[in-house]
Amino acid sequence: MSPSPKSNHAGNGLNARRQASGGCKLHRMTSSRVRFLLAVSIVFIWACRDERPLPADSVKAADSVQVPSGAVEPSTGWDRSSAGPVLLLSVAENNAVALVVFPLLTDSTVADAASMSIDSLVDASVELFSRRGLAGAASIVGRAGAQVTEGCSSWPQARLSDAATEPWRVGFIRGVVAPLPLDSIAAMTSQDSVAVTREIARLSSAAAEGDDPAFRGLPFIVRRVYRFTHETTTTLAAEVVRKISEEANPREERILILAERPVSSTGDFSTAFVSRTSGAEDSVRTDEIIGAFRLVKGDVPALVISYDYFVGSRVALLQKVSGRWGITWRSAYAGC
Q1: What span, in angstroms and rounded, lies between the C-alpha atoms of 200 and 212?
Q2: What is the pLDDT of residue 66?
C-alpha cells in the first residue's frame, strides 16, 4: 500500500491527468465550440477524478493492512477483528527485527510472501511478548532485507524502532492482546514441580493412545510444563515425549496436553486438550508453547504454538472457545 498523496501535489496530479487524456485538453476554437467543449471537458475531468484510487488512510490502524485478494481465506480461522491483521515472530539473535506473518495466507498462496509489501504497517505500534509477559513495545519502521533460498518460502522481515528489553518470541498490534504470564516448572518450588510433573504424566497415560501402537506402554517424559491463570481457572500446558531408541530407526511421539482445575481447588486436574504427533526422531514435528494471552475482544484465553519441522515451521493459535480448547488457526508453512 503506497503512502497517501500530499495535498500540495493535487494540482500536479490533475495536470498530469489532463495531459494523459486527449479529451481533457482544450484547443483554440470558436466561442460556441469552446463553451460546448468546456462543459464536456469539465464533466470528463470530474469523471477522471472520481475514478482515481482513493488515498491511503494515514492512520496506521489494524484494518489498514491488506493482503492480496486471492489470499483472503476466511476458512483459515484467523479472526482479524479480535487478533489483529498480522502476527510477529522474533528473529534469532536480533530483537529489533521481526518476521511478519500474514494469517490469511495459505500453503498455496504463501510462495510470494517474502516480497509482499509491508508499507501499510510502517509506524504501526506493536507489543512484543515472552513467555513471562510483556517484553517491550516498538513501532515498525520499514522492511529489513533478507535473502530467501531458492525453492523455499519465507515471511517478510520488518525493522522495529526499539529492541525489546528482553528476548521476545511473538508480537501483536498494540492493544489486541493482554499477556497471561507462564510460570515454568523450572521456577516452581521442588514440591510443586514434582506434583505438577506427576499430574501431567498421569493425564498423559490416561489419554487415548495415538495411531502408532509401537509407543504403547512406553514411559512419558515431561519436557516442559507451564502454568497460567485466567479468571477462575488454573491451566497447565505441557510438552511430553515418548521415545523408541532403536539405533537404526530412532522414533519419537510428541504430545501437547492442557489440563485445568478451578483456582480454588487443590484436587486433580482434568484434561482439556491433547494433540500428538509421531515419526522419525530427526523429522517429527515439535510443538513449542511460545506465549499465552487473553484476546481483549471477547476475553478469550489463547496460546501461540510453534510447529517446528526439519526444514521449516508454522505457528498456530490454540484458543478456549465456548469452554473448550481447540486449534482455531494454523499459519501457512514457511521453509523448504
Answers
A1: 21
A2: 52
